[in-house]
Amino acid sequence: MTTRVAIDCDDLIRACALGDRSALRALYELEASRMIGVAQRLLRRRALAEEAVQDAFVSIWHKASTFDAARGGGRTWVYAILRHRALNMLRGERRLEFSDAPIGEEQASEDDDPETIVTQLSDKAALRRCLQGLAADRRAAIVLAYVHGLSHSDLAIKLGMPLGTVKSWLRRSLISLRECMG
Amino acid sequence: MTDPVPTSEEERDARAAEYVLGLVEANDLPHLETMMETDVDFARRVGAWRQRLGALDETAAGGQAGDALWSRIETALGSSVAPTVSRVSAAPLRWMALWDSLPFWRGAGLSAAMAALLLAFGMGYFMHQANRQPVLVAVLMTDQNEAAAVVRAFADGRAELQTIKPIAIPPGRAVEIWTLWDRAIGPKSIGLIQNVSGKIDLRLDGLPRPTAGQLFEMTLEPATGSPIGRPTGPILNKGNAAVAL
Question: Which of A48, A92, B65, B209 lies at 20 to 30 Å from B177 by C-alpha?
Fold first, then answer.
């Protein structure tokens, strides 16, 4: 994403903090479509994804005055709010509805494949280079957790590993990724 | 209970990554949410991980974001109280529009005369009220963005908390109220309640006078309060203080 958009996001959030409802609408025009996509990869169902995006925009409006650009860009802030909400819905709901069916097994499509997702990252992105430097199963586990919200136990089932092993194994993968990306 | 705070550098960082990935167990989550508020180093690590992994969000296919969803957002916002800070800061924008309005200035001349009259009568009343008006207000919101309680701080140093929404407290537990004005010092307990209803006075004596932006929050704790003097249980609601008009 270009720097220009990042700057726009910051400005729009600041305007929201001043009570400017049209800035929120502009932010919606700019990001809502992508946000629905991000939420739907986590929550699967379109209606739930829209609910998460709705809640996120309400939070953005109310929390806009707490946004501090020095602690990270506006775009990152917006997606952190969205992901936080979607993950809460995912974990809360799974306890009620999906306890037997790992989310990652449902409605798998080509676009959901972790390798496809990694190749969609920009060639120049350090994340792409560093993910590709990891073993394929480690790369897949990180992408599946982030993009599709797979939990430790989902990953354990998917990878056929004991839960405890998955936790430490994934942790080491994250440390390697961190070392590569700096 | 084992100490959930990771010690080594790498472990802290891995913990931050797990938080960003959404891999934190439900039991640990409230603790990490608190760390996000109180532990600057941890919050910085989380921020760095969000930055690192954010590119993955760009790969999501866009969904149609139509007017229907926007209408729902507007409805949700319309029925909720606008943040105090926003209302204060929004005023100058509206005033600028009025500045250019001729009908406004015509009316203003007449109104000013009336206002002077009213002011003369009103002054005495406001002087009386001044001591009872809060200087700071914090609306504590739940995760679902519902207003749960209001903290009011007065010029004479008193502060009180009024609950808006009933809070279910499991038996053997209590709700502890905290305030955070300096991350280096960390949150301080200012009240413990077993029974949430109505108004309670907060213990602010010995603490610096509350300032705008100061965080207030309620957590669920053991009946006698947090054993370590810091929040340990889930955050029920929180809010930042704003200057009251």
Answer: A92
- Among chain A residues, the shortest Cα distance to B147 is held by A62
Nearest to A53 among B17, B69, B141 (CB): B69
Q: What is the pLDDT confidence band of residue B81, given thresholds at 50, 70 and 90?
A: very low
Of B56, B65, B72, the CB nearest to A117: B56
Together in a domain, A105 and A59: no
The owner of tokens 């989550």 is B29
Tokens of A51: 């609910």
Q: Which of A98-102, A168-172, B160-164, B172-176 has the lowest mean pLDDT?
A: A98-102
Tell whether A47 and A137 lie within a shared domain. Answer: no
A2 in the same domain as A85: yes
C-beta atoms of A146 and B43 within 8 A: no
Q: Identify whether the C-beta of residue B148 lies closer than 8 Å to the C-beta of residue B164.
A: yes
Nearest to A48 by CA among A106, A9, A5: A106
Shared domain for A90 and A117, answered yes or no, is no
Judge if A140 and A178 occupy the same domain.
Answer: yes
pLDDT of residue A111: 62
Q: Which range is least confidently modeled, A27-36, A161-170, B14-23, B203-212?
A: B203-212
For A61, the domain range is: 1-99
A121 at B interface, C-beta within 8 A: yes
Please check whether residues A82 and A116 belong to one and the same domain: no
Q: Is the pTM of this model over 0.80?
A: no
Write the CATH number for A107: 1.10.10.10
Sheet-wide strand order for B235-243: B188-193, B173-180, B215-222, B235-243, B134-141, B147-154, B159-163, B199-201
The CATH number covering residue A81 comes to: 1.10.1740.10
With an 8 Å Cβ cutoff, is A20 touching chain B? yes
Considering only CB atoms, B62 lies closest to which of A33, A54, A147, namely A33
Same domain for A12 and A93, yes or no, is yes
Closest CA in chain A for residue B9: A175
Residues of chain A below pLDDT 70: 1-7, 93-111
Give the position of tokens 């775009």.
A75
Q: Are residues A116 and A180 in the same domain?
A: yes
Complex prediction ipTM: 0.88
In a mutational test of the B interface, the residue from A22, A62, A130 whose CB has the highest number of chain B CBs within 10 Å is A62
User: What is the rounded CA–CA span in Å between residue A169 and residue B103?
Assistant: 71
For chain A, the domain total comes to 2
